Amino acid sequence: MAKDAKVESKNQTFGGDPTETLVESAPAIEAGNARHWFSRIKVQTRNLSRSTQFVIAAALILGLTMFFVGKLVSARIERAAVQSAAEAGAHYMEAFLEPYVQEMSRDNALAPSSIKSLDGLMGSRSLKRHIVSIKIWRADGTVVYSTDKSITNRKFPMDEIAEALKGKVVTDLEDLSQEENEFERTLNVPLYEIYAPLREFHSGKIIAVGEFYEKAESLEQEINRVRQQVWMVVGAATLAMLILLFFLVWRGDKIIQRQQVALRLRLLEQTRLHVSNAALQRKMTTATQEFSRINELTLRRIGADLHDGPAQLLTLILIRLDDLAENCASVDQESMETIRGAATDALREVRDLSRGLALPEINDLTLLEELQLVAKRHEQRTGTKVELKLGSLPDAATLPLKLCLYRFVQETLNNAYRHARGKGQVVSGNHLNGKLLVTVKDDGPGMAPDALVVDTHGRTRLGLAGLRYRVESLGGQFSIDSSPGKGTSVNAQFKL
Fold first, then answer.
1. Which pTM value belongs to this model?
2. Most CB within 10 Å of its CB: which of 23, 46, 380, 455?
3. CB–CB of 391/371 below 8 Å?
4. Residue 362, CB half-sphere, CA atoms under 13 Å: how many?
5. CA dist 121 to 113, 116, 258, 378, 396, Å?
6. Which CATH number fits domain 37-225: 3.90.1150.10, 3.30.450.20, 3.60.10.10, 2.40.50.100?
7. How far apart (Å, rounded) are the C-alpha atoms in residues 104 and 109?
8. pLDDT per residue over 401-426, tens digit each?
């Protein structure tokens, strides 16, 4: 009750503070300062090494953890030491006090002779070295005996003796704030109070509670010594763990730093190689396009040379044969016709070769017009039908791509005519999602997978190899889908 009264008085004192604005503004100022310091600490922490950051974080977390562990262990040790001393003191005092309280089981009070004997007991010099005050409580909270005679026969709250009435030994160190401890407070020495149940001899019934106050200097010294040992052990263990963790993290940090340096060097080397490869790729693409252009010029030159050379000579031979047949009657007409037929066939083949090698002017043609032109020329030369399935195609394309597509369709249609007799010839083209796909199909006998590389005579298929080289040299993808009896499909795909 005394404690509650003090708490209420404090609340009333501080509850009537009229400076509400200061109370409200101070937290806002403190919060702003806290945010400012937190931001500064955060910026400075980022500049520290990982091992230092870890040590700071580990020191905070481990330090707080070990602090609470140390506090808990110290509190447990202190409580155990006080309780052990209290129980020992309680047994000691029970032997002195219980003989004088046996009459309380009948009269509920102490006889004057018992009080006189207790006063004499408290006058003992050996007892005074340890015990400074004694109280005997009745079960209703009345003090029937006390070294301080001013509180005898007075009734006080029963909070502290309630547990002792249940048979427990209750102790408390340096808690002398109750009203009934006024005498003990005037002694100005550290004390701890002990409440012990006092029992009737023959029945063991609790008939009173004995309270005595023992000097706590030696106990406090022992508790402080043990507390220091506990904190030394906790501090040493914490420091050892921090040093060990710091060493492990520092070593790991050094390994990470070396790996980062090595990785950075590898990345720089990879970047350099990538740039070099990109430059070589550009040079190779340029060289491939230039080679394609030169190759077409060479083919045109060969075609022109065939047209202007062997074709003209064969034409002259045919003219001279006609003159010879008219002027010489004795010439064998059968042999003449044989010579004339051979010369005519040779002239036709040379002209076909010349037309095949010399491409038409396709610079100004779109891809759609180019594919239509190559299909039309194939139809005129072979007398077969070519079906066109052309979707959306880009209007603009580079000359190397146009040359490649023209040769691709021309060669695949020639193969379809040669191997499938021109059956089911289809040229399809489409441009979707930045990819151009051109396909030539036929309904011929098809080919086995191994026949795509080597023919029945063991010779490499130069036409297919040339087509693959043409397509892949421009960054395209070349593929053939064929199986015996199911025709052949040749595909060329370019990323525009």
1. 0.40
2. 455
3. no
4. 27
5. 12, 9, 81, 138, 123
6. 3.30.450.20
7. 5
8. 888 888 899 889 988 888 888 889 99
